[in-house]
Amino acid sequence: MSAPGSAAAPGRNVGAESALQERVLRLRVLDGGLAAASRVLAGALLLAVLACACVLVALPDAITYNCSAMQVEAQQGLRRLYVMEQSFLAEFDRPALVASELGLAQAGLERGRYVYVVSATAPRAFVLTALGTGPMAGDRWTLDERGQLQNPTNLCEF
C-alpha cells in the first residue's frame, strides 16, 4: 500500500498513466507535423492550379499570335511576287501565266507554309494567290494588279 500522503491513490498504476500521457503528447506532436505537411501540400496544389489557369488563359493568345506570324509569310511572299509580276508585265507587256515565269525559286518562295499561284485574268490584269499548307492548310490570301491584299479565308479567326 502506499503511504497516506503519497500522490498515487490506491489501485492506480502511476507508470501506466505517465505512459498514456507520453503517447498522447507524441500524437499531438505527430498531428502538428501532419498539419504542417498538409499546409505545404495545399500550398503546392494551389500553385499548380494557378499555373494551369495561367496557361489556359494565355494559350489562345499564343495560338493566335503564332498563326498571325505565319500569315506574315504569305503577305511578304505575295508582295515579292507582285514586284516580280509588275516587272514581268513591264518587260513583256503581259502578266505571267504561271509562277515559274516569275522565277519563284529565285525569290525563295518555293519552300514554306504557302503555295503561290499566279493567274492572268485579263491582258494586263492578274491575281496572285497564297494557299496555306501544313499547319496553315485552309488559309488563303490574294493580291491583285491594283495591289489590294485580301484574306478571303482566314485560318486565324477563332
Provide tags for this entry.
single chain, about 160 residues, alpha+beta, 1 helix, about 15% strand
Outline the secondary-structure elements.
Elements: H1 14-92, E1 114-122, E2 125-132, E3 140-144, E4 149-153
Antiparallel strand pairs: 1-2, 2-3, 3-4
Describe this protein's structure.
- The protein is of the alpha+beta class and 158 residues long.
- It has one domain (34-153).
- The protein has one helix at 14-92, and strands spanning 114-122, 125-132, 140-144, 149-153.
- It has a four-stranded antiparallel beta sheet with strand order 1-2-3-4, with helices on one face.
- The model has no long low-confidence stretch (mean pLDDT 78).
Mean pLDDT across all residues, rounded? Answer: 78
Question: Radius of gyration, Cα only, in angstroms?
Answer: 39 Å
Low-confidence stretches: none
Overall geometry: rod-shaped
